[in-house]
Amino acid sequence: MEWKNIYRGLVMGASDVIPGVSGGTIAVLLGIYERLIAAINGFMSKDWKKQLGFLIPLGIGIVTAIFLLSNVIDWLFENYPGPTKFFFLGLILGVLPYLFHKADAKNKFQAKHILILLIGAALVGSLAFLQASEGPVIENMTTSTYIKLFFSGFIASSALVLPGISGSLMLLIMGMYTTIIGAVSNLQLDIIAVTGAGIVLGIVFMSKIVNFFLNRYYTGTFAVIIGMVIGSVFVVFPGWPVEISLGLLSIATFALGLAAAYVLGKVEYES
Hints:
14 helices
């Protein structure tokens, strides 16, 4: 068992609760993105037992963070949305130097890769203009509601696999965020089970697509990934604070996010 993955999962799970922030981006920052994709694909093969040592501790960390930290993150997001988003903005921007290095962009990027990067950035950045609403808490569960919860989980699972795409933001756009977060806080097992099933199937489906492109079009795939991460900056950016105190706090949290990205990257890549 790679128990170090518990802390990695905690960081990924905490980020997945924030609308606009992608657990996939954090996986890239932690240097485990390609391994994560390979492990998910390997779990669906005859060598599935070999992947358990990587996936189980990571899953424990993610689930623990979602259940234990969801209320904390939700409180920060409700009371200090700007500074909280600026922290994650620093974290996201902090991963970009490693991404360009990982892709060997200086030597391998051609005009087509830059175009792909711009398209990826535009696609994710456009999410900032979509109408997002927490939506009312759904109390009366019907068959159609469960189907909607399942597909909401399926779509939101892209957050774990695709850097730059936020599962929480997708839930907001679909109006299911409040219902699902409330179900997690109140341990409503039926909602958790149906949504969780959609998330698991979505992760498997998306990981197979990403694995295919990583194996055949490595540089192009990383160009898309970099573009998605850049595009997520426009989604996360909360606007400049009007109050001086909030502005100073936002600058401090942004610097803290950059520092966290540097420290996490240094710890991962030197270990």
